[in-house]
Amino acid sequence: MVKRSRRSLFFVANSGFPITPQVGSNRSGTGDTGRLPDRPSWNPDFKGNVILGVDGFKKTGRYFDPNAFSVPAAGSFGNVGRDQLRGPGLFNVDTSLFKRIPLKERLNLQFRTEVFNALNHPNFGHPNLIVFSGTDISPTAGVLTGTATSGNGRQIQVALRLEF
Question: What is the pTM of this model?
């Protein structure tokens, strides 16, 4: 009896999408709060990394450091450019194993195992981009609140298939 097996491995790694911090109010006075929200200014006194990353989120609870920004003066626009920062990336490994077992001349049994997110790696969505609540730093600025992929935990699927 000849047994055949097949394996497959799918690996996906993407850098994060561009993100733009927002003031959270219409400081410029244009009245446009939905389509083109106001952006903050860079804080000239800030030293360090703006993006703390997922590891920084685990330590501080924030993906980016809101202290890197300052509220623009009333009636003016902030100097942070659009899409200058990157959100969390995506990293995923899926794998599968198929084993075909001949039973008779035209009858086969196939055993299948598929593992999705095999490394059980979390993939976070965008952080909260609203940096200020009035003129104070928002308590939710830079906080990651969700995942980018559904069913983010490891999932294992086992099946038997009768081929005739």
Answer: 0.74
